[in-house]
């Protein structure tokens, strides 16, 4: 029976850890829907989870130490966790409806923190409180089963191994396939299995033979509690800061965070297991003091080595990617290997350190007391390191405080002789000083050789940089990955404002969800009657807008805009204002957290904020999307907006973008739409610059209506808060080798062309304007196809030879479609120097193809005199 009991008990310990970490991931994801993705809200949820664990450890510590029936307690704890987790499947959705209203659209930082922390603590407390006492109960159960103490390190290691499985299982298996709601049911089932294992394990045993654990050393003192608190603080602080720096190197998908967290936990588990098998036998008082000083010093040293590896991360990661090869699995393994270099050695020491402290706490104030102090330190760490130290000191200095902290704990041990302290502390102290004096900051900005970094901020949400290239163009880089526009894309960025505003016709109010550089938002200043509000998640992006010439306090604005640093989704839920136009900037779908901005619930909340004749535009980066993910987003969108359209933002083949527009009521477009609405001269000038100064240019990007989009998207899953399809589907794009964006654009056009329908009402579609618009769309599709097939041309001569005939046919087919005409003009100008005869023939043919346009004739006369 003993042979069966041991693996069964070990399995229970592992499963308990699996469920606990799985819950943390699910609940954090669910609660941030209403509390927001601002760092202060995310940290509040994590802190509330840890505080609940600490409260359980402290409060139930006395009962766990003295009870003769620890298995009864454990049975009840697991049942309580299972019961409350099932209750949360109903409570959290209700919470998410109520909390945004309670918090308001623009709460102060203090109010935001208090509500986020208090609400999370309250709703999670019954479960987290019970979780905080499960490990002490399991330690007493182990002593009861095998009549021996000193197993806490092994139990802690096994429980943490379960947390690894919970991290990976929830991310790669449960949530993508079952959704968050069903995942909670699965985890509750695991808790129930753990509870039901108790009668099997204790079939012949009803009472603990020992009610008071044997003391292993002196009772825990105040300094020991301080070490427990600080080890939790420093350990989680190291995780937070390293993850933040790695976010500038890794792909930042939901899988990136999961593998990094899993490696962190694996190191803890390895350290605890090593301590159990190699060090736990040396539990005398003299050995205990020596071991503690040694473990603190070793943790300091290995944290420094991890920081050293972190400095090389931007070089190592491409090397690992190249060595692993292409594909999602290999890319994720490369992320895992890099995380292992940075995390495994220091976290193994952290695991051994806590095992040592916990083992010696059993005979003192108790394991629950030790867990409580350690978890309380972990609860404070995100606030101290993520909110305060990182923005104030930068990543390098903030990270170096971690090994310094461990070193100070070792140096201030009263029962350790000074020669021993010096022997163990000299190396890490010298390494700390050496790294601190290094002139190279711990930041990564991938840019060309001669580019300049004009500004850099280690902000609360992200690392943000303004980079100027050799041509003088400025770009905003977030976490070294996402280039959020720049001065070189002003043409495209302005169109992202003009198109939805003009599709509405006469907007008086507009809400922008996301700012980036602010250049898109800047275009709204040319609408004289428009009142604008903009919401940006990253505060540093707002501060850096002047680098891109965006001055929201300038007198050029007819109406002063309102800029709010907040989570777009939370703001939409909390606001009670109505807007004529809502514009959602490009959100990179593969980035962890962005998927929630493409859910049915978010689109529904936006529709509730639209005026009766309002328009919502969701901009989509086709250059960062595969068509399967695009289909999922479109299916979700038209489920909320039965009147929808898809427009092409511009004709770029390298970075095509799409405007997915939803309408409260069917628009009645007609000829002279712009002429009847645009009378303000500065706006007219801007539309000329943006090539949106005609109805054909405005409506020329139309790709399909709701019927066409529904047939293109087909049957499939909807992206919801419960079933976050996009968050787990979109990362495949960044992990795999993709075809050219122009190829995806061409496939999209070919799929939608037969289904397109008409943008105009039936009566207007039958007019001359309607027929010319149909010709424009056909010319546009052929133009993009010709551009895609000509991309392999090596020089201007080959380009003209391969594209001249189809482009001339396009010019003949639509007198209103000017991009083909302009392309041939530019080709002739470029060809004139090397092949003047070919340039002359091209201009002559272009003049014959469209005699009503005079530019070809004028250029020919300028270049050749006739």
Brief descriptors of the model:
63% helix, 4 domains, eight-stranded mixed sheet, 866 residues, 12 strands, elongated, Growth Hormone, Chain: A, four-stranded antiparallel sheet, 32 helices, alpha/beta, Rossmann fold
Proportion of residues in helical segments: 55-70%
Per CATH, the architecture of the largest domain is: 3-Layer(aba) Sandwich
CATH top level of the largest domain is Alpha Beta
Total of DSSP H or I helical runs spanning 4+ residues: 32
Q: In which order are the strands of the major sheet placed? A: 7-6-5-8-9-11-10-12
Shape: elongated
| Fraction of residues in β-strands | 5-15%
Structural class of the helix and strand makeup?
A: alpha/beta
Spell out the CATH superfamily of the largest domain.
Vaccinia Virus protein VP39
Q: What distance lies between the first and last C-alpha atoms, to the nearest angstrom?
A: 104 Å
Radius of gyration: 31 Å
Strand segment count: 12
Q: Can you put this structure into words, describing what you see?
A:
The protein is α/β, with parallel strands linked by helices and 866 residues long. It has four domains: 1-205, Growth Hormone, Chain: A (Up-down Bundle); 216-441, Growth Hormone, Chain: A (Up-down Bundle), CATH 1.20.1250; 506-764, Vaccinia Virus protein VP39 (Rossmann fold, 3-Layer(aba) Sandwich), CATH 3.40.50.150; 790-864, no CATH class. Strands 7-6-5-8-9-11-10-12 form an eight-stranded mixed sheet, sandwiched between helices. A hairpin with a 5-residue loop joins β2 (463-468) and β3. α6 crosses α11. The N and C termini lie far apart (104 Å). 56% of the residues are buried. Residues 211-221 have low confidence and may be disordered.
């Amino acid at each position: 029976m003993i042979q069966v009991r041991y693996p069964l008990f070990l399995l229970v310990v592992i499963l308990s850890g699996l469920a606990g970490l799985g819950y943390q991931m699910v609940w954090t994801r669910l609660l941030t829907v209403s509390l927001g993705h601002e760092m202060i809200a995310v940290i509040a949820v994590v802190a509330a989870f840890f505080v609940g664990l600490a409260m359980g450890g402290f409060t139930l510590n006395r009962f766990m130490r003295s009870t003769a029936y620890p298995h009864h307690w454990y049975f009840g704890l697991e049942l309580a966790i299972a019961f409350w987790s099932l209750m949360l499947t109903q409570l959290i959705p209700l919470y998410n409806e109520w909390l945004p209203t309670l918090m308001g659209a623009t709460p102060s930082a203090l109010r935001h923190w208090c509500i986020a922390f208090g609400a999370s603590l309250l709703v999670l407390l019954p479960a987290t409180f019970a979780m905080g006492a499960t490990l002490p109960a399991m330690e007493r159960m182990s002593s009861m089963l095998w009549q021996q103490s000193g197993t806490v390190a092994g139990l802690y290691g096994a429980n943490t191994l379960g947390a690894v499985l919970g991290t990976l299982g929830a991310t790669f298996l449960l949530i993508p396939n079952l959704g968050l709601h069903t995942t909670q049911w699965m985890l509750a089932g695991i808790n129930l299995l753990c509870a039901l294992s108790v009668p099997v394990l204790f079939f012949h045993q009803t009472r603990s033979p020992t009610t008071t654990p044997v003391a292993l050393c002196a009772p825990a003192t105040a300094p020991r509690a301080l070490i427990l608190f600080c080890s939790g603080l420093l350990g989680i602080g190291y995780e937070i800061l390293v993850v933040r720096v790695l976010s500038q190197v890794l792909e930042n998908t939901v899988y990136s965070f999961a593998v990094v967290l899993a490696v962190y936990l694996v190191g803890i588990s390895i350290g605890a297991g090593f301590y159990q098998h190699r060090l736990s036998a040396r539990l005398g008082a003299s050995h205990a003091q020596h071991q503690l000083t040694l473990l603190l010093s070793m943790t300091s040293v290995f944290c420094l080595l991890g920081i050293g590896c972190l400095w090389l991360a931007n070089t190592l990661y491409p090397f690992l990617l190249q060595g692993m090869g292409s594909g999602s699995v290999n890319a994720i393994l490369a992320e895992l290997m890099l995380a292992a270099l940075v995390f495994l050695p220091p976290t193994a020491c952290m695991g051994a350190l806590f095992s040592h402290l916990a083992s010696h706490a059993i005979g003192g104030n108790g394991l629950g007391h030790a867990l409580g102090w350690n978890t309380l330190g972990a609860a404070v760490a995100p606030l101290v390191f993520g909110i305060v130290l990182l923005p104030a000191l930068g990543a390098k200095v903030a990270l170096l405080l971690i090994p310094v902290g461990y070193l100070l704990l070792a140096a201030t041990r009263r029962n350790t002789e000074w020669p021993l302290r010096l022997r163990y502390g000299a190396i890490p102290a010298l390494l700390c000083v050496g790294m601190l004096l290094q002139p190279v900051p711990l930041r990564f900005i991938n840019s060309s050789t001669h580019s300049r970094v004009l500004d850099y901020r280690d902000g609360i949400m992200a690392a943000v940089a303004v980079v100027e290239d050799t041509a003088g163009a400025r770009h905003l880089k977030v976490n070294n990955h996402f280039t959020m526009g720049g001065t070189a894309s002003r043409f495209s960025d302005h169109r992202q404002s003009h198109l939805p505003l003009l599709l509405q016709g006469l907007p008086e109010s507009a809400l922008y969800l996301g700012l980036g550089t602010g250049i898109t938002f800047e275009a709204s200043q040319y609408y004289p009657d428009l009142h604008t509000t903009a919401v940006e998640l990253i505060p540093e992006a707002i501060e850096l807008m002047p680098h891109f010439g965006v001055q929201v306090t300038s007198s050029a604005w007819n109406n002063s805009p309102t800029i709010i640093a907040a989570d777009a989704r939370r703001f939409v839920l909390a606001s009670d204002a109505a807007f004529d136009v809502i514009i959602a900037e490009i959100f990179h779908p593969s980035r962890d957290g962005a998927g929630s901005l493409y859910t049915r619930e978010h689109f529904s909340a936006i529709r509730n904020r639209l005026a009766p004749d309002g328009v919502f535009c969701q901009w989509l980066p086709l250059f960062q999307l595969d068509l399967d993910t695009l289909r999922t987003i479109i299916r979700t969108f038209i489920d909320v907006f039965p009147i929808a359209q898809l427009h092409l933002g511009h004709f770029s083949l390298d970075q095509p973008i799409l405007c997915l527009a939803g309408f409260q009521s069917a628009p009645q477009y007609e000829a002279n739409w712009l002429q009847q609405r645009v009378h303000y001269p500065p706006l007219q000038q801007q539309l000329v610059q943006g090539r949106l100064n005609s109805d054909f240019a405005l409506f020329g990007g139309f790709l399909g209506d709701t019927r066409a989009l529904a047939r293109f998207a087909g049957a499939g899953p909807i992206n919801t808060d419960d079933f976050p399809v996009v968050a787990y589907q979109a990362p495949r794009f960044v992990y795999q080798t993709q075809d050219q964006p122009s190829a995806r654009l061409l496939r999209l056009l070919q799929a939608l062309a037969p289904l397109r329908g008409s943008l105009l009402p039936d009566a207007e579609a039958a007019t001359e304007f309607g027929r010319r618009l149909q010709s424009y769309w056909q010319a546009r599709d052929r133009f993009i196809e010709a551009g895609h097939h000509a991309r392999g041309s090596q020089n201007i001569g080959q380009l003209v030879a391969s594209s001249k005939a189809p482009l001339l046919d396009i010019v003949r087919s639509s007198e209103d479609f000017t991009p083909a005409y302009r392309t041939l003009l530019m080709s002739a100008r470029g060809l004139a120097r090397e092949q003047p005869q070919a340039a002359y023939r091209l201009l002559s043919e272009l003049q014959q193809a469209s005699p009503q346009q005079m530019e070809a004739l004028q250029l020919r006369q300028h270049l050749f005199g006739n």
